[in-house]
Amino acid sequence: MIACVKGKVFEKEANAVIVMCGSIGYRLFVSFQTLSKLEKDKEYLFYTHHFVKEDRNELYGFLEKKELFLFQKLISIGGIGPKTALAILSPFSVDKVENAILEGNTNFLVKIPGIGKKTAQRIILELKGQLVKDESERVDIPDEVYQILLNLGYKRKEIDRVLKDISQSDLDTKSVEDILKLCFERLSPI
């Protein structure tokens, strides 16, 4: 599974970008919110979701972890695939979509093309509790540290446990390398 892609934007398309990593170009499907922030020939780090189905093999890219997180929550709902999840994230910020879900605002969600009242109600029903729970469990750390530990093979629960043990002042003041050293002292070998 491809967790992230770092490279220069080679080409922008209507709903995707081609990102060059060395001599390989990856097509990443992105939301309009993400697409509007990208500049050609500039380097970015994309958090990715690799979607594989019998007839499809696609990468979805996100500049922010919270957008990836919400995307993954949305596609976990029956009847919502990656294209629909991107359609939900395209016109609005992640915060606005999350707030609509938390407030139970179906009128907001039905404004999104392809989302009817029943789908909006299902999204709210299935995600309302998860967003509150997951938001309260999040640890404010540099995304880079979390991604490095994931790429090294550590499990999310183990990373979250270790990061909760590290003081907020250390997280705010220490470098990525120093935070990683603190994590490695607390993590069991892979």
Automatic annotation (TrEMBL):
CDD domains recorded: UBA_RuvA_C
Signal peptide interval: none
GO biological process: DNA recombination; DNA repair
Pfam assignment, any one: HHH_5
Domain Helix-hairpin-helix DNA-binding motif class span(s) in chain numbering: 72-91, 107-126
Domain of life the protein comes from: Bacteria
SUPFAM superfamilies, A to Z: DNA helicase RuvA subunit, C-terminal domain, Nucleic acid-binding proteins, RuvA domain 2-like
Chain intervals for the UniProt region annotation (Domain III): 143-190
Alphabetically ordered keywords of this record: ATP-binding, Cytoplasm, DNA damage, DNA recombination, DNA repair, DNA-binding, Helicase, Hydrolase, Nucleotide-binding
Matches recorded under InterPro entries: DNA_helicase_Holl-junc_RuvA_I (IPR013849), Hlx-hairpin-Hlx_DNA-bd_motif (IPR003583), NA-bd_OB-fold (IPR012340), RuvA (IPR000085), RuvA_2-like (IPR010994), RuvA_C (IPR011114), RuvA_C_sf (IPR036267)
Gene Ontology, cellular component aspect: cytoplasm; Holliday junction helicase complex; Holliday junction resolvase complex
Subcellular location: Cytoplasm
GO molecular function: ATP binding; four-way junction DNA binding; four-way junction helicase activity; hydrolase activity
HAMAP family on file: DNA_HJ_migration_RuvA
Protein family per UniProt: Belongs to the RuvA family.
Subunit structure: Homotetramer. Forms an RuvA(8)-RuvB(12)-Holliday junction (HJ) complex. HJ DNA is sandwiched between 2 RuvA tetramers; dsDNA enters through RuvA and exits via RuvB. An RuvB hexamer assembles on each DNA strand where it exits the tetramer. Each RuvB hexamer is contacted by two RuvA subunits (via domain III) on 2 adjacent RuvB subunits; this complex drives branch migration. In the full resolvosome a probable DNA-RuvA(4)-RuvB(12)-RuvC(2) complex forms which resolves the HJ.
Stated role: The RuvA-RuvB-RuvC complex processes Holliday junction (HJ) DNA during genetic recombination and DNA repair, while the RuvA-RuvB complex plays an important role in the rescue of blocked DNA replication forks via replication fork reversal (RFR). RuvA specifically binds to HJ cruciform DNA, conferring on it an open structure. The RuvB hexamer acts as an ATP-dependent pump, pulling dsDNA into and through the RuvAB complex. HJ branch migration allows RuvC to scan DNA until it finds its consensus sequence, where it cleaves and resolves the cruciform DNA.
Domain remarks in the Swiss-Prot or TrEMBL record: Has three domains with a flexible linker between the domains II and III and assumes an 'L' shape. Domain III is highly mobile and contacts RuvB.
Name listed for the protein in its UniProt record: Holliday junction branch migration complex subunit RuvA
Highest classification ranks of the organism: Bacteria, Pseudomonadati, Acidobacteriota, Holophagae, Thermotomaculales
